[in-house]
Amino acid sequence: MFKNFLRITLRHLWKNKSYSFLNIFGLAIGITCAGFIFLWIEGEMSVDQSYPQKDQLYRIMTNQTYDGKTRAFNSTPGKLAQAIKEEIPGITASCRMSGHKALFSQGDKSIFEWGGYTDTSFFRMFDIQFTEGNVNDAFRQVNSVVLTEEMAQRFFGTASNVRGKILKVDNKTSLLVTGVIKDVPKNATLQFSWLSPFEIFMQTHDWWQYWGSYSVSTYVTLQPSADTARINRQLYGFIEKRQEGATARPFLFSMNDWHLRGEFEDGKQVGGRIVYVRMFGVIAWIILLIACINFMNLATARSEKRAREVGVRKVMGVAREMLTLQFIGEAITMAVLAVVLGLLIMWTLLPLFNTLVESPLSLGLNQPRHILYLVGIALLCGLVAGSYPSLYLSSFNPVAVLKGFKAKQGSAAWIRKGLVVFQFTTSIVLIVSTIIIYQQIQHMRQRDLGYDQSHLIQTDMPPEVAPHFAGIKQDLLNTGVVEEAGLGSGAMLYISNNSSNYSWQGKDENQDILISRREVSPGFMATWGLHLSAGRDFYTNSVADSNNVIITEAMAKLMGNGNPIGKTIRNGDDTYYVTGVVKDYVYGDMYGKRSDPVIFYCRPADADQLFIRIKPQVRPEVAMEKITAVMKADNPAYPFVSSFVDEQVNAFYTSEILIGKLSRVFAVLAIIISCLGLFGLAAYTAERRVKEIGIRKVLGASAAGITGLLSKDFLQLVGVAALIAFPLAWWGMHSWLQQYAYRINISGWVFVATAFLCLFITLLTVSFQAIKAAMANPIKSLRTE
């Protein structure tokens, strides 16, 4: 029986090649689209899941309230880790870590590498595997370093037999290589290439020991049965007991949430990338459903073609249940073929998709669960796509169809129309959403940030090189490609290096405001394109401005009415005079409207970054070649590694840019799948009405009139879909935009443009078959009459 069903199925597919191709290809595109989404979701869900203790690992975050606004920070006091381990039951281990980019060198090889200073307990908590050395000896001596296999390979050409070798750090300290560990998984939040004892950090940063200094990250592991609510209650006032007046409230943040649920608002988790993961999961299933709808529509539309087959088989004694199974079997067979074709398309396009999402995804066909997923998708698509057609086709009355009566199309026609409306409703929602997402991304990226991010290069400036900056700057200007250069803080774009320990005349003693500080050199304001609104810039001679500061307009407003120039700001025992005010610039919260206050100090020796503005008319590659030559000549001990500031700004919008790209791709695919169904339905409609078209042509109907007649019904369906889709799209996008303080207003033209686009696409899809039918010779279609 199975062989018979299979033979009938293959014969039917071969006999109706065009119909079969449309069904299989449309379903394959849907499976390809859903498959890529599921691969991306799997990649997102797998981040940080390779650690054995992931369910017990937590980062200590702190909620800090300033000026009535609570923010979540991942920095903590250096003494917190040991104190909470000793005093709070349920915490089995703790460690500190301070991330740091350092220059490692051996001989003539020098490379900047990212790593961190940490405690020995870090290795056990994160289950770090040693390939050389062991956890007990790793930090036995202070000046030691543990390398990943990748970093060891870069320096020594091998990841084995490197223990006992010496690496120099920042051209100062020599560190003994005491171990080699396996590379950190690419899908881990915490990335590093080297680890050294926290004692090294303590030696150079004595402020780590103060409870008011939030300078390191703290991690803990809990007992499996630990009560996290109880521990959070004990953490709440932990810092306040040791520092009077502290506003920081520590709390546990699970490793399972680091990647997907890392956004906070008013001190509470409000989501993160998990929102997009869920959204695209829904889109994947909807696109699969759209693809299945094509099968249902075409199968029911072509019911007359199979009516006699059903009648004959019923007369021969085949039960309705067997016919139902046969038609479902045909659907599953087509779904299997679509899965195979979809896999071929995915295999071909996977490198492009990996580039799009910037992740090394793979099909993973060697994984049993992936095979099960594919089988499940094939069965599900076959059952969903074949369920209604099988019930509909198997219900035909054999007497009626064998007497030549046409199968009733009433209910089936309405269902087909409803499914077409559903298809295009979904497609229109995706198109509108894609346009609005793109507008919002462009709105954020093109906003006035308060500085000129274009043509601006950033590179590290070691402390020992800073005193020679004047000569380096002159050499850079002499190249003819550099417009300006200045030293500044690497934290310019981030909420860091801040304090609330500032006072000024007229300040409310109860007012607690977080203010950022930036150390810069003369010329920095011009280099960054920051605009002075009052006062003057720093003098060329930085010593003359050692007690002067420049503030942002937000800081000037805090200091009250009147001219801020000449007013004093106190920080502890130090007093500074305001000599200039610059317009606010956007940093940290790139989505917000309000800029936090900033104080700029004229302290070139404390700046750690060199910023270079190249002339707009100079090609970047030419400018980089000349700048590199200068930096190598003036700073030979350090390799010249640079980045463009606009790339750093774009990194703040990584999630939004990715979502924008994915939504565009999937919206296009949804339209293509829907159009394939329309194309098939239009072809069948033209075939069913071939004699009507012939009579109309004989009676004088024009080709344009017949084309319009055949296209009208489909255009009406798309119009109905638009009326349903627009309110849904507006509601969804309005809700999505609320998460951004700096956002666009949804414009009516988006809906109008989408409506015309969909009508045009529909007309283009249907008109090919309509024109073909209208241009056919009526004599051929009427010859049998």
UniProtKB/TrEMBL annotation:
<dbReference type="GO" id="GO:0005886">
    <property type="term" value="C:plasma membrane"/>
</dbReference>
<keyword id="KW-1003">Cell membrane</keyword>
<keyword id="KW-0472">Membrane</keyword>
<dbReference type="InterPro" id="IPR025857">
    <property type="entry name" value="MacB_PCD"/>
</dbReference>
<feature type="domain" description="MacB-like periplasmic core">
    <location>
        <begin position="20"/>
        <end position="235"/>
    </location>
</feature>
<dbReference type="Pfam" id="PF02687">
    <property type="entry name" value="FtsX"/>
</dbReference>
<feature type="transmembrane region" description="Helical">
    <location>
        <begin position="746"/>
        <end position="771"/>
    </location>
</feature>
<feature type="transmembrane region" description="Helical">
    <location>
        <begin position="414"/>
        <end position="438"/>
    </location>
</feature>
<keyword id="KW-1133">Transmembrane helix</keyword>
<feature type="transmembrane region" description="Helical">
    <location>
        <begin position="698"/>
        <end position="726"/>
    </location>
</feature>
<feature type="transmembrane region" description="Helical">
    <location>
        <begin position="21"/>
        <end position="41"/>
    </location>
</feature>
<feature type="transmembrane region" description="Helical">
    <location>
        <begin position="322"/>
        <end position="350"/>
    </location>
</feature>
<protein>
    <submittedName>
        <fullName>FtsX-like permease family protein</fullName>
    </submittedName>
</protein>
<dbReference type="InterPro" id="IPR050250">
    <property type="entry name" value="Macrolide_Exporter_MacB"/>
</dbReference>
<feature type="domain" description="MacB-like periplasmic core">
    <location>
        <begin position="428"/>
        <end position="629"/>
    </location>
</feature>
<feature type="transmembrane region" description="Helical">
    <location>
        <begin position="665"/>
        <end position="686"/>
    </location>
</feature>
<dbReference type="Pfam" id="PF12704">
    <property type="entry name" value="MacB_PCD"/>
</dbReference>
<feature type="domain" description="ABC3 transporter permease C-terminal">
    <location>
        <begin position="282"/>
        <end position="398"/>
    </location>
</feature>
<dbReference type="GO" id="GO:0022857">
    <property type="term" value="F:transmembrane transporter activity"/>
</dbReference>
<dbReference type="InterPro" id="IPR003838">
    <property type="entry name" value="ABC3_permease_C"/>
</dbReference>
<keyword id="KW-0812">Transmembrane</keyword>
<feature type="transmembrane region" description="Helical">
    <location>
        <begin position="279"/>
        <end position="301"/>
    </location>
</feature>
<feature type="domain" description="ABC3 transporter permease C-terminal">
    <location>
        <begin position="665"/>
        <end position="777"/>
    </location>
</feature>
<feature type="transmembrane region" description="Helical">
    <location>
        <begin position="370"/>
        <end position="393"/>
    </location>
</feature>
